[in-house]
Amino acid sequence: MDILFVAHLLNGLLMIAMPVGLAIFLTRRWKLGGRIWWIGTATFILSQIGHIPFNQVVSKLLNQTGMVAWSPTAQLIFNALFLGLSAGVFEEGARYLILRYWLKDARSWRKGVLFGAGHGGAEAIILGVLVFYTFLQLATIRNADLPRLFPPNQLAAAQQQVHAYWSTTWYAAMLGALERFFTIPCQIAMAVMVMQAFTRRNIGWLFAAIGYHTLLDAVAVFGIRYISPIGLEGVLGLFAILSVVIIFLLRQPEPHEENLPGAPETFTPPLVPLEETPENLEKTRYQ
Q1: Is 274 helix (H, G, I), strand (E, B) or coil?
Q2: In whole angstroms, what is the distance from residue 164 CA to residue 6 CA?
Q3: 41, 88, 191, 284: which sits with the fewest CB atoms below 10 Å from its CB?
Q4: Sign of the CA dihedral 7, 9, 15, 20?
Q5: 53-73 pLDDT, tens per residue?
Q6: 269 domain-assigned
Q7: CA-CA distance, 17 to 23, in Å (whole number)?
Q8: Is residue 286 part of a domain?
Q9: Beta-carbon neighbour count of residue 75 at 10 Å?
Q10: Residue 162: is it exposed, middle or buried by C-beta count within 10 angstroms (0-12/13-18/19+)?
Q11: DSSP H or E run through 161
Q12: Residue range(s) defining the domain that contains residue 213
């Protein structure tokens, strides 16, 4: 078992283990239970049900209207802005709707952090499962006789994929896990920003989260074209640091449970002054 094999293995496992470990840590530390985290994971999945088909439809329509004739630079600029904006609208819009109509009792900083950890965690786990499945496939055929496994028209592509996968450096093989490590804080920051639309009663925070999401994804799309993979992870690392700063700048005191929406009202009977009679004074002598 060589170091590259271990690196590919750890890459997929860490992408799954990091968000799960974070969920366990936050729920136990804050004693909030797992409900909010699971709703956060559902929010990401629901957002993609609309997001992915929308991107496909728009891409098809643009190709039919002559986008293929655009210059490579124009296509890249459009793709970066469009993909970033669509991700921001669908994901942050989904967060807002879930908080508005489902998680009505989540109106605190801690719950916003846990909600975002679930959203970013779902993304990391899904990608991690795909990465781990790819690892299992390519580990199985690493030393196999490929001409016996693939038809002639697929053999060259299979050989190229196997060679590229097993000839990379060990640190490049773990960039996926590093990317998720940097992306989860960004997802948490955007969830906390959307939460401000409710805690501060200002819808502008939703648009701020959409703008931040657009910028993050647009820079990533540009980076794939012009920056090395390691350099791109450095850029994402800067976004992660900025996101952590945003998270703690938006930290607010936790509200008391009785002040949360939907909390049962308590009744305190009015105090009635007692008349200072000899009989009442005798009753209170030993109290």
Answers
A1: coil
A2: 16
A3: 284
A4: negative
A5: 999 998 888 777 766 667 888
A6: no
A7: 10
A8: no
A9: 14
A10: middle
A11: helix 152-166
A12: 3-255
